[in-house]
Amino acid sequence: MVSENPESLIKADSTSYTLNNQMTRPPTIKKRISSGGVIFRVSENNIEVALVALRGRRSWCIPKGIIEKGEDPPAAALREVREETGLAGEISDKIGWISYWFFLKEEMVRIHKTVHFYLLKYIDGKTDDHDDEVDEARWFRSEERRVGKGCRS
């Protein structure tokens, strides 16, 4: 008997997956390294940070992306912030890094991702000049920050 929903035949977790209740190969493990930054400016005695909206403006996130071949984390952070927010900045400090795992069910791949974050002081640019990877870029006063849980991948 064939299920009407083929997805119900596949069950996956972080170590293996089953197809039609039969154990198959463990998922492939891949590493991804990204970099991003919090760009800020002082405006009217208040600190503002630029965030980017993803997924139909449901999540506001810190701009970040994959480090390209030959690029170091600080250079990638500057590039990603510029591309995703339309804003140029200079690095004033490294904030730190985070590391987490996620699973791409459709590819049966387990991803170990590390993201480096930097603090950037705004130099110039306009948030309207962001690329097509994000829905919107906008300045928020520091007490308004709205970083969402949906910004992991």
Dominant shape: elongated
Specify the structural class.
mainly beta
Rg over CA atoms: 19 Å
Q: Outline the low-pLDDT stretches.
A: 1-10
Helix content: under 10%
- Number of E strands: 10
Major sheet size, sense and barrel closure: 7 strands, mixed
Beta-strand content: over 45%
Sketch the topology as an H/E string, one letter per element: EEEEEEEHEEE
What is the mean predicted local confidence, pLDDT? 84
Distance between the termini: 36 Å
Tally of contiguous helical segments:
1
Q: What is the topology?
A:
Elements: E1 10-12, E2 17-19, E3 22-23, E4 28-43, E5 46-54, E6 59-61, E7 64-66, H1 73-85, E8 87-104, E9 109-125, E10 136-141
Parallel strand pairs: 4-9
Antiparallel strand pairs: 1-2, 2-3, 4-5, 4-7, 5-6, 5-10, 8-9
Commentary on this structure:
The protein is 8% helix and 52% strand. It contains 1 helix and 10 strands, in the order βββββββαβββ. The strands form 2 sheets. Strands 4, 5, 6, 7, 8, 9 and 10 form a 7-stranded mixed sheet that branches. It has a 3-stranded antiparallel sheet with strand order 1-2-3, with no helix packed on it. The two termini are 36 Å apart. Residues 1-10 have low confidence and may be disordered.
